[in-house]
Amino acid sequence: MVANIIVDNLSKTFFIKNCQDLRRIEAVKSVSFKIEEGECVAFIGPNGSGKSTTVKMLTSILYPSAGTAEILGMNPWQERRRLMYHIGAVFGQRSQLWYHLPAYHSFKLIAAIYDIPDKKAKAWTDELIRRFDLNRLAEKPVRTLSLGERMRCEIVASLIHRPSVLFLDEPTIGLDVEAKALIRTLLSDLVRQEGTTILMTSHDTGDIEQLCSRVLMINHGCLILDTTVSDIKQNFLTQKEIIVVYEDGTTGVKRISVGQDIHDGIAALISRKTIRDIRVTYPSLEEIIRSLYAHGGKV
Amino acid sequence: MAVNVTYARFRFWGRLYQTIFRQMMSLKISFALRVLFMIMNNLIMLFGWFVVFNTFKIINGWTFPDFMFMSGLIVISFSIWSVFFRGAGIYMARLIEYGDLDTYLLYPKNVLLHVICGQSDPAGLGDLISGIILVTASGLVTWGNIGILLFCILIGACLFVGFNIILGSLNFYVKDCTDFGERLFYFFLNMTGYPGCIYDGVAKLILISVFPAGVISILPVEQMHHADAITLLWMGLIGSVVLGGSILFFYIGLKRYESGNKIGVKL
To answer: How far is residue B160's CA from residue B203's CA, in Å, rounded to a whole number?
Structure first.
């Protein structure tokens, strides 16, 4: 496999002037990782951990203070314009669509920005419109679209030049359950059909579970975890809960370690009263991730 | 290959202006009102000076047609900035202030050109129409000096665009400078709006050099009456220095750019 993204000791330091003091903030500290062609990787971390700063450096919006990176063999800061023909980016809070016009006009302008011949651009845009089910929506002014509809249009806008690498910063932010599910399915199809490499930041564990095979976790600017999603579930799942509902309607909960004999736990609960129901639950990915944040990548 | 690159560039600018005008025309009533009221605004402003010139006839050698020509020329130069390069100025300043240049940095096009061409004000068309009316009605333009007129318009547009790029880029260097930049621009615009005959000596020297408002108000009227190569060269030099300097100022500032997280849409 070819590494589409290579990041080596990337750092970013901001200097913020506060009255007389010049404060030094190390937003990203010596982050290194590689992402193979066709991989979909989640880049997660608490607010202010350095996720967006890293993505902005990789998309050449910010210059790094130290370290290097290569995207598709190109240096993002020295070959910005050449690189931009091959990468796409969606920042959940920002729009590249013209507010008063139907999205279709923005798609046509974006095709011209990437120097794509009209015939080729039309064929691919129509295909994306079909895949993202935007037939009717692409003709409506963007201001009249819902957030979920607009986000689908934003993703189409970022795919018009068929990028090999796609950076997604909170692509499902603020969307309802249905819109989130639709966008995840569409992105998953894209990875499968086009082999697009995706680096995605998200606070939504649903995005991670359904789209990504690998997780990079960053906290206080340092990369604290680089593992697969299945490894997280296997290695960091240390406890499970036995919950019983008694005949009188009250509940009893017993937390045991994964390797511990379940009989002891159940016995302790059923010895008290007659039970109506019993179930064993595992912590959700969200709980595991919360615990990982709290303990610096270790549970 | 070179032909393809040039074609692609023109196709991009063509499509960009097509999109801008489409957006303007999508709000037809607002568009028409802004054009109409800008024409009225420019013509009403002239009325006050008509009264002054009607009373005194000649002020320091200037007549009312000279003033009409000067106003028309400034308004045409202003409209070129307003219609085609309106992104320079407040729009650019806000993009920098709120860390919103990201969208432009993600495209494989020249960032500065894309930003300054990315906005347009329909009222600028009103300026263009009233400017053409004023210049034509002044009676100063002949087939012999039409080249000088076009040269003066070009220099005027360079000054308006360059000055606005500088004011917009100030936010790279000093935080929260948008309001200051806007006021400075309107100060510059006001200085161009008075008949050049009221300035003399040091004031005139300042206005045709360090604060070049006079390059688009005083000098063009003089050149329409008696053209001389040195003054025209001087005007060309000032225009080039302001525009070239503004481009340099923007790109040096861009290295200090700080991206932001503001939620927004492209208006």
So the answer is: 20
Percent of chain A topping pLDDT 90: 41
Element (H, E) at A200: strand A197-201
Q: Using CA coordinates, name the residue in chain B closest to A106.
A: B19
Q: Do B100 and A52 touch (CB under 8 A)?
A: no
Q: Given phi > 0 = left and psi -120 to 50 = alpha, else beta, which region is A218?
A: beta
Q: Per-residue pLDDT for A66 more than 80?
A: yes
d(CA A120, CA A133): 20
Cβ atoms of residues B36 and B44 within 8 Å: no
Contact B131, B79 (CB under 8 A): yes
Q: Is the pLDDT of residue B89 over 90?
A: yes
Cα separation, A131 vs A230, whole angstroms? 29
* Paired sense of beta strands A222-228 and A3-18, if any: unpaired
Q: Do A94 and B255 touch (CB under 8 A)?
A: no
CB contact under 8 A, B11 and A115: yes
Query: Which residue in the set B12, B107, B259 is minimally distant from A62, CB to CB?
Result: B259
Per-residue pLDDT band at A143 (split at 50, 70, 90): very high
DSSP, res B208: T
| Mean pLDDT (whole number) for A174-191 | 84
Q: In chain B, what are the domain boundaries?
A: 35-254
Q: How far apart are CA A177 and CA A184, in angstroms?
A: 11
Q: How far apart are CA A238 and CA A211, in angstroms?
A: 24
Single-letter amino acid, residue B26: S
For the record, the structure tokens of A184 come out as 């995840």
pLDDT of residue B88: 95
